[in-house]
Amino acid sequence: MDMAFRTDRSRTPRIRLQLLGQVTASQDHEPIHLGPPLQRAVLCVLALRLGTPVSKQQLIDYVWGGRPPKTASQGVYTYISGLRRALEPDRQRRQTSQFFIVDSAGYALNLDPSTVDTACFERHLAIARQLREDGNPREALHELDAALDLWTGAPLLGVPGPFADRERSRLDEQHFNAIEQHADLLLELGQPRDAVGTLTGFVQEHPLRESARELLMIALYRSGRQG
Fold it and tell me: What's the CATH number for 15-112?
């Protein structure tokens, strides 16, 4: 079976996933119960590898780590089935899944990237980076605003497993860099007071980030707060 995204979604209910904070899902604006933490962990792997097949063994390694229980293989089937029921409660037993693709290569989640907040976040970052390189700092700032607005808390909150741990660190670093880039753009645009507002709380929470402290010192100086 072809693992590529399907393109005809004219009759497909619109699923949205939020991973940048508490992991939640909704279908046509109605919340979806995603099940226990390990089931959410499986969903997060597939959502962060959107459209890319993930084998059963990879899922076991990502969710349970190096010492999985003997029930891990059956657990993968159980959690995939649980996610199918959660996302497609009206699907008949032999009906083709709209959101999951399964073949010999593994499992893939078939969602439009625009409905997954992590994919949107990274797209906004890429666009902002290109706009700044092209000499459009104000438009780049708008893209970073959109990226940062997607965050509602610590990413993958409450999701267990080594994959989630690694992704939390990666996403946190992207988030921190985006905050610093946002402040740097404010300085470039002559808005040091706004940069102070962006950085003050951030530096208090992350005092070891020297780049943020340096930006805050510059912003304070340019705001007339040399002391």
Answer: 1.10.10.10
Q: What is the pLDDT of residues 193-226, one digit of tens each?
A: 999 999 999 999 999 999 999 999 999 999 987 6
**Spatial contact of 74 and 64, defined as CB atoms under 8 Å apart:** no
Report the 10 Å Cβ neighbour count for 194.
18
The dihedral built from the CA positions of residue 43, 49, 50 and 53, taken in this order, carries a sign that is: negative
CA distance linking residue 15 with residue 24, whole number of Å: 11
Report the distance separating Cα 45 and Cα 161, nearest Å.
Answer: 10
Q: What is the tens place of the pLDDT at every residue in 71-106?
A: 999 999 999 999 999 999 887 777 778 889 988 889
Beta pairing partners, 108: 101
| pTM score, whole prediction | 0.89
Beta-carbon count within 10 A of 117 CB:
22
CATH architecture of 115-222: Alpha Horseshoe (1.25)
**Amino acid, single-letter form, for residue 140:** A
Amino acid residing at 48: L
